[in-house]
Amino acid sequence: MKSFTGKVAVVTGAGSGIGRALVLRLLAEGARVAASDIDDAALSETAAIASAGERLRAYRLDVADRDAIYSHADQVVADFGQVDLVVNNAGVALKGSVREMTDDELRWVMDIDFWGVVHGSRAFLPHLVASGDGHLVNVSSVFGLIAVPTQSAYNAAKFAVRGFTEALRQEMVLEGTNVGVSCVHPGGIKTNIARNGRTSNPADAAEFSKSIDQVAMTSPKAAARTILNGVKRNKARILVGPDAYAIDALPRVLGSLYQPLVIRAAKRQLGQ
Fold it and tell me: What is the value of pTM for the model shown?
């Protein structure tokens, strides 16, 4: 997919952050966009900023709801007639140790960050194949490359997205389709994911948001540009931000020995 002109793109989590930036850039590059989010107000704000007329349609969507995703795929095809690009971007964050977090908190993260990606991929895949020039983008994280304490649920979901997406890319090649598949690993991006996330210990909420803000090196606009350039190059793995490249190198160079470095950094943050 060398150009987005005339293409129909689907973007989840389009109410803010990377999702909103992707919508705006895709529209600027000539695409028609089906933008979805569970937050009606944020999605309406994206639509107002875009001011793209009939080239943009907004849909309320809970990606944790499998049936809703499949219905959404049918509706988008009915509204636009085709689907060429799907970006499964919607995600949530949780801070909590394995012993602290509840089953419901773990399930909340997995339902959105993993199963939302799986169902989004499977629901739209037949339409991407039919496109003849389709591309699927699943957003993982640098936490799909390394594990860190208090992020076990998020790590589990993002590592799973990585494995699922890389296997699917190989299947699309073996099946002789023209569907490209990319897994995105953003580093620190200036978004609301921490402020909209959850903590197993409510006392950690402010510190969690602050810690994410401190390491955010890349703007959503820059992230969107990197992702879409990666799509044009049919990259299997798209790293977003200089920190993503550094983190990607850690397990490659050190193997499991990266873990003591993470522990040391966590201790410094805790003042130990």
Answer: 0.92
